[in-house]
Amino acid sequence: MLPSFVVMAFLQLTAIIVEDYDDAIAFFTQALGFELAEDTPAHTNDGRAKRWVVVRPPGAQTGILLARADGEHQTAAIGNQHAGRRPETRDLRQKNALSKSNSRFK
């Protein structure tokens, strides 16, 4: 017998691994027009400093957690987290920023 499942009705956050918090915040807020929803000091499980950074499109409930790479495995994933695919938008200004992001923002 197959296990039962629950349909997810809401996605609060999805994460993107970034090299630098401030560069990523600038890209999402300035180039794409997202809002900075949260930027809170935090710590890793072993006590190192990090930040809890969430951006989201204006008025949206779902956000993007900007997670700084921690270690070689995560660093290697920067820029290739979605098999080379980028977000899609109908806004021409955002399309231009996304097309330039390949070299400027990983």
SSE map:
Blueprint lengths: L12 E6 L2 H11 L3 E9 L5 E8 L6 E6 L3 H6 L14 H13 L2
Parallel strand pairs: 1-4
Antiparallel strand pairs: 2-3, 3-4
What does the model show?
With 106 residues, the protein is an alpha+beta fold. It has one domain: 2,3-Dihydroxybiphenyl 1,2-Dioxygenase, domain 1 (Roll). The protein has helices spanning 21-31, 72-77, 92-104, and strands at 13-18, 35-43, 49-56, 63-68. A four-stranded mixed β-sheet has the order 1-4-3-2. The longest helix is centred in the C-terminal third of the chain and has 13 residues, at 92-104. The mean pLDDT is 82.
The CATH topology name reads: 2,3-Dihydroxybiphenyl 1,2-Dioxygenase, domain 1
- Second CATH tier, the architecture: Roll
Radius of gyration from CA coordinates: 16 Å
Question: Strand order of the main beta sheet, please?
Answer: 1-4-3-2
**Sheet bearing the most strands, described?**
4 strands, mixed
Number of strands: 4
The pLDDT mean sits at: 82
What CATH first level would be assigned? Answer: Alpha Beta
Helicity range: 25-40%
Task: Name the structural class.
Answer: alpha+beta
Beta-strand share of residues: 25-35%
CATH superfamily name? Answer: 2,3-Dihydroxybiphenyl 1,2-Dioxygenase, domain 1
| Outline type | globular
Q: Distance between termini?
A: 44 Å
Q: What is the string of helix and strand elements? A: EHEEEHH
For the record, the count of structural domains works out to 1
Q: Please work out how many helical segments DSSP would assign.
A: 3
